[in-house]
């Protein structure tokens, strides 16, 4: 019977740590608190809910949040102008454009307009390159680097997956890891993180043949396919750690709403085989927002450090990502 990896409790513990960090930062820098700008386009109910949750989490730990809401028919130029203004605001350390954007907007153009040091979603090509080229491990740095010490932004959900493995004592180095899904937001970055932490990583996707036998080899399984309960108990190697990123809604007439949320893993059966497993909801989900807060706080502390170096007459500090 697996140990349940409690993402809700872990995220709460991280928020408490960050709250203390924010207080210390405000005291020592004498500047504004860390600030997150959230850009929301249109009236998708799920996006509005996510934005509300993000703002609430900011309030809890003393991070300022600034909302910028635009109608569905906003022009790309208007959005780019908004991002440009936020790039230069000293009280904004993180800029998040809630995805998806309407079809008439080129998502990549908007994401690329964000200054990489404020790109708390970690989706700007400069941050993606830093992740892919192994900037996760500076020369001479131990393999057991801490995510919180990186000098660029790692996407939040993948960061949350690794944090859960770390905090639940799952050894990554040398292990076989299998990732389901190859999206830019989850599958690819989580694979990169696992690889840089010295796991042997196999990426699987919708065209993988006999995926069950690939998953059976995994000491660590990260599921981000968005397919309700596709991973069965007999796919799981006994003793494996299972991180379920999937959020899928399935009809359920017995619930008030008429549906319920399930992950990509058949949780009830898989927890009899795995050593450690995340539930859905209450696993990776809450971690995503906690990592967004961490990226924002990191953005503020890095900006303050760079400003201190500049004030002392030094050259540029930090990552060089501006
Ligand atoms: P996506 O649709 O962009 O990508 C899905 C990936 O899964 C694709 O690469 C595809 O090749 C692969 N895939 C599809 N069917 C498959 C199959 N049968 N077998 C193996 N691979 C298959 O989705 P995404 O944005 O990466 O999200 C994945 C899931 O994670 C979704 O359920 C999403 O809701 C959830 N999600 C959760 C969080 C969170 O905070 N917990 C954050 C982001 C995404």
Automatic annotation (TrEMBL):
Top-level taxon of origin: Eukaryota
Domain (Tetrahydrofolate dehydrogenase/cyclohydrolase catalytic) ranges: 5-121
Source organism per UniProt: Ectocarpus siliculosus (Brown alga)
Gene Ontology, cellular component aspect: cytosol
One of the GO BP terms on file: tetrahydrofolate interconversion
Functional pathway: One-carbon metabolism; tetrahydrofolate interconversion
Name listed for the protein in its UniProt record: Uncharacterized protein
Domain Tetrahydrofolate dehydrogenase/cyclohydrolase NAD(P)-binding: 155-302
Residue range from the parent sequence: 147 to 468 of 491
Lineage: Eukaryota, Sar, Stramenopiles, Ochrophyta, PX clade
Keywords noted in UniProt: Hydrolase, Multifunctional enzyme, NADP, One-carbon metabolism, Oxidoreductase
GO molecular function, one term: methylenetetrahydrofolate dehydrogenase (NADP+) activity
Subunit text: Homodimer.
